């Protein structure tokens, strides 16, 4: 073993076994409100990738930190193990999804153990096990009783050759062909199960404002997804068909509504299509809601604009969607871009009815809308008695005045369609009876377990004949099981509750304990696809709370979205072939190196580039740490030295230990692992410099510094620090259970002191460099006189336009003559950037304590002098926070 290396394989295995033996990560059921730290559970897809390693290092480091701070911690892990990829992998390997999934789980669990992630494995959950998914079925039935489950017709992708429904992911290419047989995919209407998330749209939207521990970007994505729109409903009377309701956020523009449009599947459109070949052709062949251009066809009917009484043409148009709003809209081409494009194509009138706000009493200037719509609010014009009102006033007045109009709030959010025509998911617990219709499977018959996998091109559950045929629970007649399974997002919408009591077999979770342990204090995961998961989890929590099973209405108090791990600026991905194998890094450098490298590379929520050089450098650092501790622990010279009998260098080291502990602790609280570990690494550097400078280290100081460095690194590099802690403390308990250290340090003061020392060293370096001094004989560091500190303090506070004048009025400054006016001018020039520095005595103390660093670097004695002790020529250059330097050759 080289001086700077260590046997990471042996060290890591030894402590993983010790932790397991000590049950170090178990959360007892009687723990009181433990800190709940959770990483999004993985899909068991084969092996851990770097994204997993980053995700779980973040939660593990935070969980370890909280545990050392004295918290009870709940840090569980499980498997989001249903889903299409397992089904595909099984087909490719002529195996079955279950065996493939269980193999993946074994591999990934082993890798997590090798990474040293401290999970309470007694709480492991696996969603593809009947012990878990029976509670999906149970919750589905509870939701059904609450009126939150509906069965309704929905469009699905259908391959006519395979005679099966395809998931969106199974439809490929621009032409939308089947992934298996290349046949063009058709749309079919099938009855599908939905969960009533829209009943919670308002609460899901408004409660986002209180999620202060969530990133703003995620909160905004959720708001947009829910898509709250406030507006009005209003009826247009359609010739021969009576009143038809439309929704608009811009009732202020109703005088400019020059056409009316219906969705292709609006009941009136369907009625017209049955009678008219052209309309049927349009509805069946032409209409393309996803297309770039708005298409439509004239019906020959008119509708009465309820504000103007005018008749406007009625179209069937494909940009009107029946599942958003009412399936009908009033077209205002002057003030809506899409309506404008449509009106231009169809030759409909375009009338401006809102003008930009004008200044003062000037008449509003009517905008030219012939080339494009004017979409901003403004002042209403061309609108009869409403002319002159602001858009907001007009909306209010028109909604009140028009008989059929009423205020209405609408959401973009749709109900959650959970039916999947796949095998590897939770069977929907329903039996279809010819006489009784869909009937819920009785609670005592749960779980409905998956039958053996059938390798078929169609839906395997449909092909599982024996499983499928059963009897109706209501009437006893022959009946068939529902062959759809649940969207796997159902599994992950409540899994965080199951960890609380994973083995409970008469309820999904222990209510009392969940009330105590929830919500999750810190949730961490990738956010690329997390909007839906997070929304579904919030919905499930609220729905469960409304069933009186939970006192909490939000599942996650704090959310961190981890950044990507990149290689040369690109996201690592299997398909691009630019991945780095965590296994290789663990084998070559150890788990501690991988973990520490990742955490120091960047803040957890930002992307960073993988660097082999960085990994090596982290590995070398851990080797140096080991060497520093071992050479001290193995040599008890200086033991028992008086703690107060310390030289200035030791005093400096002590203050740096306090500073490192205080700064790192603050950063750990904030999940700023990059800054926290940097403190620890710099502290180790300081200890090594100190050891090199003195013949014999001041043992109590050095030991305290080593212990601090070990503890600060323990959350991130747990194995080596555990080993070194055992050596340093001669086996006095496990580090994983040890108490965090505290330090009394004023962070602002620390910052000023470090800046001062850094500036001073930098200045000495520059002078030596510029003057070409090869072998300095002595370095004098001259601190600024007290009056300059006073002047600076005045300048920082002052808002007088003439700062020089203000300063020179003070006798204690003025009496320093031209030195005073020069300094006052300097302060005036740098006014914007001025900030307070250490007080004069503190500045001198700090420099005396740090003098050894300069002595060591330049191999010359250093004197710290007051301005009075130095030559005027030198002393005049000294400023607060920036001492003057005089170097003798
Ligand atoms: Zn096909
Ligand atoms: Zn029946």
Can you tell me about this structure?
The protein is α+β, with helices and mostly antiparallel strands and 889 residues long. 42% of the residues lie in helices and 16% in strands. Helix 1 (8-22) crosses helix 24 (718-728) and helix 3 (84-93) packs across helix 4 (97-114). The longest helix has 25 residues, at 747-771. The chain is flat. One zinc ion binds next to loops.
Observed structural traits:
alpha+beta; 33 strands; binds zinc ion
* Termini gap: 44 Å
How confident is the prediction overall: mean pLDDT? 93
How many β-strand stretches?
33
Bound molecules: zinc ion
Judged by helices, strands and strand pairing, the structural class is alpha+beta
Question: Mind describing the biggest β-sheet?
Answer: 7 strands, mixed
What topology does this entry show?
Elements: H1 8-22, E1 35-39, H2 50-68, E2 73-74, E3 78-79, H3 84-93, H4 97-114, E4 125-126, H5 130-145, E5 149-159, E6 164-166, E7 171-172, E8 177-178, E9 186-195, H6 201-206, H7 216-226, E10 228-238, E11 242-248, E12 259-262, H8 267-275, H9 277-286, E13 296-304, E14 311-317, E15 328-331, H10 337-346, E16 354-355, E17 379-380, H11 391-401, E18 406-411, E19 416-417, E20 419-420, E21 430-433, E22 437-440, H12 460-463, H13 465-468, E23 469-471, E24 478-481, E25 485-486, H14 488-492, H15 495-498, H16 511-517, E26 520-525, H17 530-546, E27 556-561, E28 565-567, E29 570-571, H18 582-589, H19 591-601, E30 608-609, H20 612-633, H21 648-669, H22 673-693, H23 699-713, H24 718-728, H25 747-771, E31 778-782, H26 786-797, H27 803-808, H28 811-814, H29 817-829, H30 840-858, E32 862-865, H31 872-875, E33 884-888
Parallel strand pairs: 1-2, 1-26, 3-4, 12-14, 26-27, 28-30, 31-32
Antiparallel strand pairs: 5-6, 5-9, 7-8, 9-19, 10-11, 10-13, 10-18, 12-15, 13-14, 16-17, 20-25, 21-22, 21-24, 23-24, 28-29, 31-33
Helix pairs in contact: 1-24, 3-4, 8-9, 18-19, 19-20, 19-22, 20-22, 20-24, 21-22, 21-23, 21-30, 22-23, 23-24, 25-30, 26-29
Bound molecules: zinc ion (2 copies).
